[in-house]
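Researcher: Hi, I'm a grad student and pretty new to this. My advisor asked me to get structures for two proteins we've been looking at. I'm not sure of the right format, so I'll just paste the first sequence and hope you can take it from there.
Model: That works fine. Here's the first sequence with its structure tokens right after it:
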Amino acid sequence: MDEPISPNTVSEKTVLSGGCFWGVQAVFQHVKGVSRVISGYSGGTKETASYEMVSTGNTGHAESVEVTFDPRLVSYGTILQVYFSVAHNPTELNRQGPDSGPQYRSAIFAVNDTQKQVAEVYVTQLNTAGTFGRPVVTEIKPLAGFYPAEDYHQDYATRHPENPYIAYNDLPKVSNLSRLFPALYSPKAKLVTAGAALD
């Protein structure tokens, strides 16, 4: 008799950058099929993976999130759909909303060749269709390393909804997720920090 499949048996990861990691993390924490979203840094070295150093804009890092998902429940293509349509504006070069600098660039760090190819095709389709009226500037590179951010950055939007930055820039993204992708939206955020998920 076959063993029942554990919900944690199948998982895939990808690393996405789209401005301040608070908002990108908040969006993907509400996506069904996603089990974990960690804020961090990607694109530079381990030695420079700290908020203080990344904030200089000189490390090569982008503020990123590592998304762990079950491809049986949510496909990589759907993850990209949420990323491009809800999580950030992919036409802004080296900035996102009020934040500017290469650390806030739009970037996909693919964990394998398949992810890289799918992302490249996706961007080509968006540009060919003129979806945004401006070219998508998202950088697509193989993942060289992901370094989790400091603890105080994890689950930031969920823990500080009253913060004016969060209220203005990030909570509307979560609302857009629930409006545009109601079948994908989970009202409870999957948090990194200990404790039950928050509504």
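Researcher: Oh nice, that was easy. Here's the second one.
Model: And its structure:
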Amino acid sequence: MLSGAGRPIAAVLREQLSRQLPPEELVRWDSAFARYLRGEDASDVHPGLKSLLLPVNRHFMQTWVKYDPAVEIARVKVPVLVVQGGRDVQVSEADARALKAAHPAAELVVLPAANHVFRGATTNDPLMQRALYTDPTLPIVPELAPTIAAWIKRLK
């Protein structure tokens, strides 16, 4: 499980948005998101949020909000490796720890300098990390592949 949320997506989205929106816009989001999930018009959100509420994605989102990653990982009967970036601005180390708590046999590894897509980050500022998401020439952190390989080798 790489950069996995440990909570339902509605909670993750709200947390992400709460760091970016003023309180009144967050209240508008809450209302619009609830209407969107019910199949109603939700166009009265901040223009930057409209892409999260596209009608074409509604069914996907309606099913995704019902999914609780911690509940699901607890059901897994095979070995699990949870890898989390220490500079992930989308999901937190607390999410990784929730997954580990739900599946106590899982191994948890936090790569301190990695962001959500396991590129090296020097800041937790989402704007400063933007290039790390979009530049395909940037490598993943050097610890990721050996961490996964070592875990696989221990499975024997």
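Researcher: Is there anything I should tell my advisor about the second?
Model: You could mention this: The chain has a mean pLDDT of 96.
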